[in-house]
Specification:
This protein is mostly beta strands and about 110 residues long. About 5% of the residues lie in helices and about 30% in strands. It has one domain. The two termini are about 25 Å apart.
């Protein structure tokens, strides 16, 4: 599973990759796993162009044992409270950690 995160102030963020053992998305598609952590020499947000300007941030986290819980009941990828997407991206959306992978299931 590939979990990308643009919240550089999160305790679990390592080079725009989430390293948390469990990721929990709430019913509003907000990442509840986010934990604020002020880092020394805070990184600039390079994620918009990360594959072009900073290829070292393009690493993927292919870990099968990460638990990705989803309470966003109307998400296409939510199957009985677990995310079935191949990966997710969490973005910084007006100071919240929003799941950008959320697709409303009609």
């Amino acid at each position: 599973m590939d979990i990308k995160c643009r919240r550089t102030t999160c305790e679990h963020n390592r080079g725009y990759t989430c390293c948390a053992c469990n990721v929990d998305i709430d019913n509003n598609a907000i990442c509840k796993t986010y934990e604020y952590h002020q880092k020394e020499n805070e990184e600039l947000d390079l994620s918009k162009n990360m594959f072009e300007s900073a290829p070292e941030y393009a690493n993927s986290r292919h870990i099968r044992n990460v638990s990705l819980y989803c309470n966003a009941g109307k998400c296409l990828f939510n199957k009985e409270g677990k995310c079935q997407a191949n990966g997710i991206t969490v973005i910084d959306d007006n100071e919240t950690s929003a799941c950008a992978t959320f697709i409303e299931d009609c």
